[in-house]
Amino acid sequence: MATFDELRQQAEQEIRGQGGASSSGDFVGQAADLIAALRLWATAQHRTEDDVREEVELADDTALKNIVPELQEGGGDHALEASRRLEAIAYAPSERLSEIFGVAQTVFPPSTANEPLWPDEDQ
Q1: Exposed, middle or buried, 2 (CB in 10 Å: 0-12/13-18/19+)?
Q2: pTM of the predicted model as reported, rounded to 2 decimal places
Q3: Residue 113 domain-assigned?
Q4: Which of 36, 47, 60, 82 is deepest in the core (most CB within 10 A)?
């Protein structure tokens, strides 16, 4: 299982690779923290990358606050550090939280779950 630091480094590289680096370094760092913490949580809870994507797309501070204790229960220093960082993000002012989620969302291409399987041929 990857460590929080490894997941954070991976997330930061993904953000920079998707153009999220145009945001301030502080937002990039916190977005990387968010993604890494959610991935650590997903692994501990036997969830998938789609679950991580969903949490990032929802951009819901209450959902993050609910994930913090689940992450803490994952045990170990990595889970504890991840839960602390996630909690700091969850309680950030709404404008800051929106910016963090916006940067994190650059890692995940837009979901096509609600799009029709076949494009409308009449257009």
Answers
A1: middle
A2: 0.84
A3: no
A4: 82
